[in-house]
Design brief:
The protein has helices spanning 2-32, 34-41, 55-73, 78-100, 113-126. It is globular, with a radius of gyration of 17 Å. With 149 residues, it is mostly helical. The chain has one domain.
Length: 149
C-alpha cells in the first residue's frame, strides 16, 4: 500500500510542478526577478549561460532538502516529492532548453502535433521582449489552441 502512496505523491508532485513553473514564470520571473529572466527573452551577452539559468538552483535546493528529510529525518514523503521535483526538472530541461531553444542540437526533427504546438506556444510567449504582456503557460500542459494542424 505504501508503494501506491509513493507513486501518487510522486505523480502529484510532478503535476504540481507544472503549476509551480507557470506561477514562478508569471509572477516571479516576469515580476520582481525580471532582471534575472530578461536575458532569456533578449540576450544581452555572448555567454552560453544565461542569468535565467539561476532559477533551476531554487528548485534543486528544494529537491535536495526533500531528499535530506527522507534520509536523515525519516520523512517518507521526502523521497517521492524530491524525485517528483527532480523528474520535472529533467523534463523541463529536455523540452524547454534542448527541444525548444536548441541549447544542445538534439530533437531537431520532431514534427508531430505536440511538438509543433509546444514550439508555437513558446514562440507566442517570446514575441514579447519586455516584462509585461508575455503569455504564460506550463511546459507540458500547453493550451489546445496551439495544436492546430
Amino acid at each position: 500500500m505504501k508503494t501506491i502512496y509513493w507513486i501518487l505523491v510522486f505523480l502529484s508532485t510532478f503535476c504540481i510542478m507544472e503549476f509551480m513553473a507557470w506561477f514562478t514564470h508569471k509572477y516571479i520571473m516576469h515580476g520582481f526577478l525580471w532582471y534575472l529572466h530578461k536575458d532569456h527573452h533578449k540576450k544581452d551577452h555572448n555567454s552560453w549561460f544565461e542569468r535565467n539559468d539561476a532559477f533551476f538552483i531554487f528548485y534543486a535546493i528544494v529537491s535536495i532538502v526533500c531528499f535530506l528529510l527522507w534520509k536523515y529525518k525519516g520523512v517518507w514523503v521526502g523521497l517521492p516529492i524530491g524525485l517528483g521535483i527532480f523528474a520535472y526538472g529533467i523534463a523541463y530541461f529536455l523540452v524547454h532548453d534542448i527541444f525548444i531553444h536548441q541549447r544542445f542540437k538534439l530533437f531537431r526533427t520532431a514534427n508531430n502535433r505536440y511538438a509543433k504546438g509546444v514550439r508555437r506556444a513558446h514562440k507566442m510567449h517570446h514575441k514579447h521582449l519586455g516584462k509585461n504582456h508575455g503569455e504564460c503557460f506550463g511546459m507540458l500542459f500547453v493550451p489546445f489552441k496551439y495544436f492546430k494542424k
